[in-house]
Design a protein that fits this description.
Blueprint: H1 3-30, E1 42-47, E2 54-60, H2 69-77, E3 85-88, H3 102-109, E4 113-116, H4 128-135, E5 139-142, H5 146-152, H6 154-162, E6 166-173, E7 178-180, H7 192-203, E8 207-211, H8 212-218, E9 235-239, H9 250-253, E10 260-265, H10 270-277, E11 282-286, H11 296-305, E12 310-313, H12 317-325, E13 331-336, E14 346-347, H13 351-357, E15 361-368, E16 371-377
Parallel strand pairs: 3-4, 4-5, 6-12, 6-13, 8-9, 8-12, 9-10, 10-11
Antiparallel strand pairs: 1-2, 1-3, 7-14, 13-16, 15-16
Length: about 375
């Protein structure tokens, strides 16, 4: 084959790899919020022996984190996996846990080629899964759609490299840049379609986090209210330095149905803790900063030890600015709503967050009904 032919064949294979890797990543994203502390991985088994590739099986990490995506797909493919190509959005594990390593399962299935989007930064795995496959004579390609996969696995990556969950901050503002009003009723900044999209984001998070100010002002439910996805409501977290959350708050009253954690300081009143725990709330105590407020880096590290990988922060401007000041913002979803034009006097972006915006990349904009979503992320 001449050079031009080889180049064309390589380009065709690259395009095919990207096609199936997009599917693998999308499969894993379906179970985001359900698999923590494990990553939600997607996998596809493809027969590439004929004129056109044929998908034999698909898999995603199952709720609770087991079985892993590779095992689900390989089990569905059965003996057809021999000689096939396996696409996986994260390096197959190589360590023994509750099951034997997925890398061993891939070898045993007789797969001929593995296309992996990312090397797993978990020190128990890093490069060892890919090495195990190569030792068995499997052709391994790493890095296909790596940026897309990194975004899908940002929670897992952040937890194993920084010891804390990734934080996605959601803020809504009016066209004039205000998040609310110091007086009067709560501003309704976004429409029904935008609100539904936010609920879908909630369903893909391990936890929703707000500050106590939001609880006192709005008494939110902090659950998922999309038809058919109600069971996807994640853990609810309230950052409350002095345990001002009232036992009558709706997040407290529903603690028996949806796990509810309140992160407070070591100096918060014990009597208030007893009243909350009697309702089923779990109170987590961390150090206070110099102002007496929850030390957010320590709080996020504690949430990491509890297995959380993705926190969706829906607190107001005060919590958002505090997270930005502590350099804890990994992703920002900024929604500009048109329904509150000319209203409000509380700026959505505080000074620390405004400074932090210069260090974030705007990766996408999306019109959702009348409202504009802008998605920012760490470079």
């Amino acid at each position: 084959m001449n050079a031009a032919g080889a180049k064309g064949q390589s380009s065709e294979r690259s395009a095919r790899d990207q096609r199936f890797m997009r599917l693998a990543i999308a499969l894993g994203e379906r179970h985001l919020g359900l698999t923590w502390p494990n990553p939600s991985v997607g996998s596809v088994v493809v027969d590439e022996s004929g004129d056109a590739p044929v998908i034999l099986a698909q898999g995603a990490t199952q709720p609770g984190g087991r079985p892993h995506a590779e095992r689900v797909a390989l089990a569905a493919a059965g003996t057809r996996a021999k000689g096939a190509t396996l696409y996986v959005s994260l390096e197959p594990c190589s360590h023994h846990g509750r099951t034997s390593p997925c890398a061993d399962a891939v070898v045993e299935a007789g797969v001929a080629r593995v296309v992996s989007a990312l090397e797993d930064p978990d020190p128990r795995v890093t490069g060892l899964g890919h090495a195990r496959l190569r030792e068995a004579g499997i052709d391994v390609t790493v890095g296909c759609l790596a940026r897309n996969a990194r975004r899908a696995h940002i929670g897992h990556i952040t937890r194993v490299t920084k010891g804390r969950p990734a934080v996605t901050m959601k803020l809504a503002r009016s066209t004039e840049g205000f998040a609310g009003s110091r007086r009067g009723p709560r501003l309704m900044l976004t429409g029904e379609v935008a609100n539904a999209k936010v609920h879908l984001m909630r369903a893909h998070a391990d936890a929703i986090m707000v500050g106590v100010g939001t609880v006192l002002a709005d008494d939110p439910l902090l659950n998922v209210r999309l038809p058919g996805l109600e069971a996807r409501s994640p853990v609810r977290i309230v950052v409350d330095s002095n345990l001002r959350t009232p036992p009558t708050a709706r997040v407290v009253a529903g603690a028996g149905d949806i796990p509810t954690w309140i992160v407070t300081t070591v100096a918060a009143p014990v009597a208030a803790e007893k009243a909350l725990t009697a309702q089923g709330v779990e109170v987590l105590r961390v150090s206070a900063d110099e102002t007496g407020r929850v030390l957010l880096p320590e709080a996020l590290q504690l949430l990491g030890t509890r297995g959380l990988t993705r926190v969706f922060s829906e607190g107001g401007p005060a919590l958002a600015d505090a997270l930005a000041e502590a350099d804890l913002v990994d992703e920002l979803v900024l929604i500009t709503g048109r329904s509150a034009r000319g209203q409000g006097d509380v700026p959505a972006l505080g000074p620390s967050l405004q400074d932090r915006m210069d260090l974030l990349d705007c990766r996408a904009e999306e019109q959702v009904g009348p409202d504009l979503f802008m998605f920012w992320e760490r470079p």
